[in-house]
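REQUEST FORM: STRUCTURE PREDICTION
Request ID: SP-0412
Submitted by: Lab K.M.
Chain count: 1
Length (residues): 470
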Amino acid sequence: MNKLNSKKFITENFLLNSKEAEILFHEYAKDLPIIDYHSHLSAKQIAENKPIGNITEAWLSGDHYKWRGMRANGIDEQYITGTASLEEKFSKWAETVPYTLRNPLFHWTQLELKRYFDIDTILQPSSAKEIYNKMNDVLALKTPAQLLEQMKVEVVCTTDDPADDLYYHRQIAKGDFYTKVLPTFRSDRLFMIEQPDFISYLKDLEACIEFSIGSFPGLLRAIDYRIEFFHQNGCRLSDFGISGAHSIVDFTIDEIIFIFDRYLNGHELSPLEISKYKSSIFLHLGKKYHEKNWVQQFHLGSIRNNNSRLQALLGSDVGCDSIGDFPMAIFMSKLFNQLDRNDQLAKTITYNLNPSQNEVFATMMGNFNTGGIPGKMQWGSSWWFLDQKDGMEKQLNTLSNIGLLSRFVGMLTDSRSFLSFPRHEYFRRILCDLIAEDLKKGLVPDDISFLGNMIQNICYNNAVDYFDFN
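STATUS: Completed
RESULT:
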């Protein structure tokens, strides 16, 4: 491929296609702080607060988006997850970047170069060496906490297993950090009774609570202890992200006690018994989240680890996941309805990965907006493969058509990288341009102040009110 022109690409009005959009972004959205209520950042890295040092480690080491792009460009695995040097891996990413045109990776790459390193040059083979050295010079001096403060990140919520001791969150809470770093109760492993390591996971839980889980009531007691522990350490959100189809089936508590005893005694459970167990956990957790006034999140619709060869070679979460086509409506309806029936449905955010189900999710959330809480049931930000311009616009338009965009809690990073926070800017620019187009077409009143205030609410204020981290 020919060399790309190095003319400045990320301008002040990037993605803003009218004067109205420019006003909305620059005067109302641009300088707002960030509430990043779902991420996969490392609390350990923030607590230790040492400069990352190398851009390959900061940018490429855990980024399966980039790995997929590099594989699609024919890059050998040794330069992606293998034994090549850090500079060689970066060089291969630079080789790939020009081929990512019209993929969000191109926009994200150039935004991050500009915002963190003040680099306007387009990353490509001819500029790779100079950019690599400049980025490393910056990262040799800046710590994770400084990178977060630079982007005005007020709150970061990490993703944490119920058995996590939250040691590093407690260290951060004692320190002098601009950013508040809070845990999220990620319940996935509590459901995995069919997995070979579930017994060992119960042992991990027992080590945290210092009593034996010898029965189903003991497991529920352990879960309640861990929820209380997380709550005392600032947790105000839960999350669930197991891939595949899910269901809620009828059960009695005596059935679940019997099923769990059978499991502990070494019996293999039937698919129906597994479904009953999982249904009981969904409902128990949902009631506890409501009791604690937490927000529960559900990431639904992925099919993971499709490439068994790469999974065997590299493990899980290496960029071989995709959109699934599972039915989700009945699961959500039964779960939310059973909790709502006794007024035990917590504030809820759902994220769907299959765009063909946008209207399914948006309409389902509208069924349970009860209790006088503005925007109680949120259909969340476009997620994963949909986390790009087209996906964001479709999510915003569908939410506008079926729900209340003005009550939306806005964007998140869902990222493992300390360099991913320009995604909030990306979202804000797209939102401002979308509202400005409506204004130009006469679809909304000609009141910039009102529209700007709505944008500020979506980008920041709604999240402050909804999560109430204080």
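NOTES: The longest strand covers residues 295-300.
Reviewed by: T.R.
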